[in-house]
Amino acid sequence: MIMARKILSHTVMQEREVALVAGMADHSRRTQYELYRYCADYFWDNYRAVFFADETAADEILQNAFIALWENIEQQRIYAKEGRLMGRDDKPLSSSLLTYFMGIARLKYLEWVRENPICKDSESLQVLSVRKQQKEMEEYIGMLYDYGEQVMLGIVADVISRMSPRCSEILTKFYYEEKTLDNILVEIPSFSSKDALKTKKNKCMNSLRETSVEIYQRYLNT
User: Fold this and answer.
1) Structural domains counted in the chain
2) How many angstroms separate the CA atoms of 50 and 109, rounded?
3) pTM of the full predicted structure?
4) What is the pLDDT of residues 155-167, one digit of tens each?
5) How confident is the model at residue 143 (pLDDT cuts 50, 70, 90)?
6) Does residue 36 contact residue 20 with C-beta atoms inside 8 Å?
7) Please, are residues 158 and 87 in contact by the beta-carbon 8 Å criterion?
8) d(CA 208, CA 212)
């Protein structure tokens, strides 16, 4: 019964997201407002589990993330087709629209961190938490900002949404939800050990990097 309710809930959410993206493509003002509320409500309920920022900064991140999502729909980087959400190369998204949106929000947060360096003299728990996040995200930031920033941000968010369900799940939990490998191992018990999970995470990260760079290079040559 519980599983049936989950499947039904997922189906309803999927249908709603397809309708919202399709409505955006048709330039429906009502849909534009509905999509914003849909993303904003989820953002305010969950952003503190994804990154640390005060409400003023969070609101800026939300606006920038929604604009990026809107642009991706306008440019058909994400679109509705035959009742499904699709991404590049006419392949279905492996994540929900909300996960896709929060991925963009996470990347916009990295932009905000770069533009608003934390005070070196402060040692509050919040500042220490942000420093820890920045250290853990170092390889991720390096990948993003070695290339054209705005274009690469969109490409990375798109690639993550289209990776295998397992890679998408691991990278989302590790980089977006900032869970430790120990916590992820509990949530994904199919891995035989922490080392096995770490190896898979690194392979997924390498795949993300290589695919993103390849797409970016094709973008430059068009």
Assistant:
1) 1
2) 9
3) 0.57
4) 777 777 778 888 8
5) very low
6) no
7) yes
8) 6
